[in-house]
Design a protein that fits this description.
alpha/beta, nine-stranded mixed β-sheet, three-stranded antiparallel β-sheet, binds calcium ion
Amino acid sequence: MAIRTVDTVPLRRDLDEQFANAQKWISAREYCLVRIETADGAVGWGECWGPIAGTREVIDERVAPLLRGRDAAAVESIHADLVFDLRSAYHSTVPAGVVSGVDLALWDLRGKAAGAPVARLLGGKRRASVPAYATGHFWPPAEEFTAVKESVVSEARSHVDAGFDALKLKIGLERHFGWGPEYDLELVRAVREAVGDDVAVMADANHAYDLPAARRVADGLADVDAAFFEEPLPPDRIDAYTRLNRGSSVPIAGGECWAFAPEFRRATNAGAVDVLQPDVTSAGGLTSARRAAEIGDAAGIATYPHVFGSAVALAASLQLLATLPGSPRLEFDRTPNPIREDLAADPIRNEGTEVPVPDGPGLGIEIDRETLDRFRVDR
Ligand code: CA
């Protein structure tokens, strides 16, 4: 299974209307996929988190020449060698999305070579489908708070109508709109009122707060029985996470911006979060996300992987979720997006509250060539 080619496949789709979270306005969805082909003609697909720019160049110009000729089955040693090489090249920043995209493609190849879904190679499925929570609830451009509130509440209702019993809101309105934490809590209360007490409600601040504001919001979220409070603080403020988590009755969640086992270990040992959220496209692939989940499990905390990618990321996340202990939930992005829906020849959809784990070999999906060609931006 010698690696013959490593290629990047950049995809982009401009949105009809931009939307925001606490960090940014989003006007396009873009993905840098990785395609690895072996000498015997097998193909594995991976996906890198974040903008195409930078990631594509690192893979094409630095990583591809390093990997040509290596045994694709050596997934973990390639992972270690890539981290070593990129650390020595870039010092303070290992481009974790790059390592992730390559790692996912290699896991896909490993599963295809074995004729088995990756979940089986990760130790075996504990579940054939995963309970999902609906994520989305981004904010539209608006002048008035009531317009944002109506949009979010109506979206929340639509998810419940579609069969979901759990959903996650965005909070942290202040940066874009100037509306402070009291508005965030009003938004959460409005959703709780609209969906009732039987629906699990989570809130994601995308790093919006400092510690005092985060404490206030945590108290307010406890009042509406929120299931967790995600990324209240910037991800590098581990000490502040620990102080918040210690005093909060709502579980604190985070980790989508953390990468590689040592960082998850540091955060876990510090008691920073009660829910770990590695993203398979940015944590260092399935290799690192699985290690993060093991570190969390050893400390008695849950792992709910972060997912906001294409069908490749979704399939890989489901393979991991199938194997995790406890009662993990899938973060199921519900923003309209054909690169998530149509890129898998057999689209991944919820059946009521659950999403089935793809059962094909490797990551479990076939890439739809037509969708791939439709959104490619390099030709
Ligand atoms: Ca998030």
